[in-house]
Amino acid sequence: MSENRRFAIGDIHGCIHTFRYLVEEVLQINAGDTLFLLGDYIDRGPGSKETIQYIRHLSSFTSVKPVMGNHEFMLLKSLENEAFFELWFMNGCEATLMSFGAGPTLAMEPASVHLIPDEFVEFFKALPLYEQTDDFFFVHAGLNPKSDDPLSDEETLLWTRSEDVPEEILGKRKLIHGHTPVELTLIQQRVEDPRSTVINLDGGCVYRYRGLGYLVALDLDQMKLFPVKNRE
Length: 232
Fold this sequence. Notes:
Layout (H helix, E strand, L loop, with lengths): L5 E4 L6 H12 L6 E4 L10 H12 L3 E4 L3 H11 L4 H5 L3 H7 L18 H8 L4 E3 L3 E4 L14 H6 L7 H4 L3 E4 L6 H9 L5 E3 L13 E6 L4 E6 L3
Parallel strand pairs: 1-2, 2-3, 5-6, 6-7
Antiparallel strand pairs: 1-8, 4-5, 8-9
């Protein structure tokens, strides 16, 4: 594998065994490759801490560009304000807190977020809201075409379910995002259609219904999908 390759990977949600298998066995990532990660590395799945550790390990020998997801945002807000913990709790934070050593009871309490070591908190704080290249724009959720400054519209970048995008920002690029789980067949249809300007790579890895349950990587240069069924 002499050519440098570029991949984007959808929402991982603590599915560390699936993530490792995709990266090591399927993609066989090596130095010189670039991984764009679309956010939501934590919550719901069993290996949130381990997922972050693995992303940091990958960054030690290849280019990894992770953007922030709404779940990382909820974690950071819960550190600042205990009242925000309730929203995070309704979105699967127990799994994350237990991966950092909280027992089942403590993981239900706002104070448990302070068990997360500073090095992980700094990782989350450093996540950008988006990444972009000459041919792609990477974001967790999407862009707001009605905003005067779409690149500063934090709520839309992290939370929107809309795929309407501002042409003046996107230009001739494709927008690659996650956030909303969709069936693998729908992802495949978008990738295969050269007219598609927006591609959602969230195969709902952490879920096991409605055609979901896949962690999905996209080869950005070959426009080829690499889906892996949940292996947790």
